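REQUEST ID: PR-0412
SUBMITTED BY: lab tech R.K.
PRIORITY: routine
TASK: structure prediction, single protein chain
INPUT:
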Amino acid sequence: MLQIRKSIALLMTAALFIIVACQSPQTAENTYPENEIPVRTDSDEAMLEFLAGLSFLDQGNAQRAKPFFDKALELDPDFVSAQMYRAFSGNSAKDFAENRDKFIAMRDKANDGEKIIMDILLADMDDDDVKEVALSKKLVEKYPNSARAYDWLAGSYTSLDETEKARELWTKAAELDPEFIPAITNLGLSYLFTSPKDFKKAEKYMAKVAKKVPQSSRAQINLGDCYRAQNDLPKALTHYVKAAELDPEDQVALSKAGHANSFLGNFDEARKNFQDARAISEFGTGSINFEAYTYLYEGDPKKALAFLEDAAANVDGMEIPESNKTGTKMNCTFNCAMIAMHYGDAEHLKNVVEMMKPLSAQVGKDLASNAAELNQKANMHFWDAMASVTAGDYDEALTKAEMIKTTLESVNDPNKLRPYHRVYAHVHYKQGNYDKSLEHAAHLNPDNVYDKYWMAYINKKAGNADIAMKMFNDIADNNFNSVGYALIRNEVKEIVATAK
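STATUS: complete
OUTPUT:
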């Protein structure tokens, strides 16, 4: 709690100025500082709680932020922006959706900026990325001096894969307000995880954030990620340990230490890290999948599957919200499906997919939007298709792929058909139609390590050996934990080592 009190203390000066603006609803928007989208409350105490929560959320710590937004709403139930950020700090699909809907229902109390954000969320409920960009532009037009408005617009452009445009906007946000942490952090994350990547630039931005908020565990975590990307695992681990020292209740810090130890080959230490992270996670379900990956790195997929299946079975006996049970079981079964698919276990994959279907449907219901339900239906068509690919029934796989296309016809998301193209790429690869496979693979996410692994193999079979080897080299030291990477890391490292 020491860091929490320090964060509140640092915010007091700014809060006192803002509260003056909030005393008169008629003048609040005119007197609120220009570097923020306006918020309003008649309660000084609620504003202080809100600002403390916003500080944590801006650092990327939703779990720490949530109780402050809850307290702000307890003090002022009509605090519109507090309700908005309470949604953004949700701990499950249902928790997010319920608080999102409460926020949208407050339209008659909202200012112009809050109304635009409500409209952005409504567009998100329809998975209309193009409309989200248009509305985010309105937010910037309404508040041209707001770094946060530019951050919204940049985030919207990332959904359209317009990476350079997003980076320009985050740079603009950081120029408008050099103390606005999200813009600097998002620039770092963009260079870290989105092509074209630049790990040194990412490090520069994350180091800047760590200097601005030296007590932030999340700033240390992000800096550690930069060193992990550069394959300096011991240095990454040092920053994760420092993050855990800054906030012993930050489960992410412990989990990140587990990632570093996984890649260092310290599997027992990694499992201990993940278990410790899980012990302090909000519902005792954190890092289950990451602990399972340690067995994949050790070359024991059967043990990984057994671990995940046991974890999914044990969730029902836990006294946690149903939506969190659903999310945990969905995560476990998804990982099981990936493992079964990768190792060609068609019967096991078929069984797991059947287990996923009611969970997927419930996730769609919990998110409470038409687009969410459509995306979940399309997701299950994809897994049905991949089960057919794994079983060698390619005609059935393509039939299911077409169902993905039909299901998502009304969705205005340029990337909506990636699962459709993934199925076609796999079918053509299995049938030896490598040029056709490459045509569909071109639509996949180049930053998805498992997709890139298959792109490398397709290129190799198509006679593009140099391109294939470059892709294998790119992903050999990915060092970011996912089931896709856990499945291929050892194999790819051996391919690269043999080629030298």
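NOTES: Residues 1-31 have pLDDT under 50 and may be disordered.
REVIEWED BY: pending
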